[in-house]
Amino acid sequence: MSAPPKKREIALEERSSDESDNSSENEEGGEYTGQQEIQVEFEGRNPIDSDFHGIKQLLQQLFLKAHLNLSALTELIIGQSFVGSVVKQSDNELEDEDEDDPNDVFGITTVVNLTEKQNIECISQLRTLLVELSTEHGTDRCSTMIRTLLSDSSKPLGLVINERFVNIPAQISVPLLDSLCKEIKKACEKKMAYDFAYYIFICKLYKVDGKTKGKKKNRKGQNPIEEQDVIWSNPEEELLDEVADMKFEFSVKNETDSGLSGNWLEDDISMTPFRRVVLLDAKKLEPLVSRIQEFVNR
């Protein structure tokens, strides 16, 4: 069982644009225009047992059809409630909206130790997945580095899970990542297994079909990545990509991506979903949060 929930010092409000003149028509069942936005106040809390299905759903939209025991991974995340946050709707708003489920989870930001917990089934599956993906899609140097880190207990590797519903703005990432950094630091002070040498992120992005402009030059032994029009599911992860020590990507076109489910307009562009695996020196995470703060405040 998880500990009683504690609210993180995270409170954010999704900003909505000015409503158009025909907004009332849309509310009465008119045609979807693609401009409908709502204003919602969110807060961060530590994960608890009742968040199980919400967290698992978010993991599903990230990992899709990968061979992973997502139920076990979800339980592991809930069990380490002293590190990581789930994004929930504010209690004050829920009091006025009886139809909302108080257990809805809109996002999860946490880290799991791929080194210390390697004998747990779901972590073993994650490690195998990373080796297989880097071998198939990464350079030899990239694949070798990931294999080396996974086998070197002196350089613990942490998988940062930074997942949320697609319409939640990037502003939310700042307090969540900042809180995660502080929690990791506190855990290290208590001699807990969170003193990571590297972090690995699995980022979601989408490439506009038919917009290939060539390939970027190979840098630091990384795969040459096609220079297409790219849309990041989590916009702040573009900054993470810029300071990556190693990265590779792969298409998930043949897998169902629940992260982009919903209504589409006739004129919407066609995009192919990708995953980009990014390896980051642990010392870069805190400075990165400051850069993200500047990015979202522009």
TrEMBL record:
Source taxon at top rank: Eukaryota
Region (Disordered): 1-35
Signal peptide: none
Biased composition (Basic and acidic residues): 1-18
A Pfam family this chain is assigned to: BCCIP
Any one cellular-component term (Gene Ontology): nucleus
Regions of compositional bias (Acidic residues) in chain numbering: 19-30
Alphabetical list of PANTHER family matching this protein: BRCA2 AND CDKN1A INTERACTING PROTEIN (PTHR13261), BRCA2 AND CDKN1A-INTERACTING PROTEIN (PTHR13261:SF0)
Entry similarity comment: Belongs to the BCP1 family.
Annotated protein name in UniProt: Protein BCCIP homolog
